[in-house]
Amino acid sequence: MAKIVAMVNLKGGVGKTALSVYFADYCALQGLRTLLVDLDPQTNATFSAMGVDEWDKHKDKNGTVADLLGARDHNNADGQRKSFDEVVVRGLLNGFDLVPSHLDLFTIDLDLAGKPNREGRLKKALKDELDNYDIIVCDCPPNLTIPTQNAIAAASHFVVPVSPDFLAAIGIALLKSRISDFCDELDHEIELAGIVLSRVGRPARKRSETIQSIRENFAGEVLDGQLTERVRVAEAAEEARSVFDMGDDAAADEFTVVCSEILDRMEMEI
Asked: Is the whole model's pTM more than 0.90, yes or no?
């Protein structure tokens, strides 16, 4: 049965989507049957994996994660929700599957207001697919709204990517506390698989002090490896290519170290 990991942070711009996409890609390279679920309405993970043009064709014909969560039920005259097999896009980059996102997720909290089991819809949609994958990666929006709640409610683990700037760092403890409270209410167990220092090297006031503080305050939870801000990583996303195929050995090595460390902490065998 698949292990499910949610990539979460309350702040945007911390490298969460890049880690989600290339962690899924790394898992596929290791021979793991991998699914990436894009729950962020900005759809950046989707565009990084399949490109805008292909997504545009797919969303109208086959649907997206918004259909699986019931955010687009009002658009279906017959009331029939899209199935997982319709929505999923198979064999992207180095072999992972993708459930693409949609802009409709921006209003999903309103769309599902008063509906039952709002936070359990992803878990229900994936229930029959768990034996078909070894690992499922959820890229979450930078908040704790319905899409993120669905990821956490389904996940066995979560990872917190954080950039070394003050505003991103101060939210770590708050995020961990909110996730703990949410899971207690659901009687759901989830484990922290690591805090990842990401986008290291971009301009940030007191960056080195912030990194040291994060490592000291969350000792044992911060991964040894870290991800540097690199042009090739941004280009890989723009071109819907794998960071492992961009000819930047340093970037590939950093993602390899971080991704393998996450798998170790999740006790995944490769």
From this structure: yes
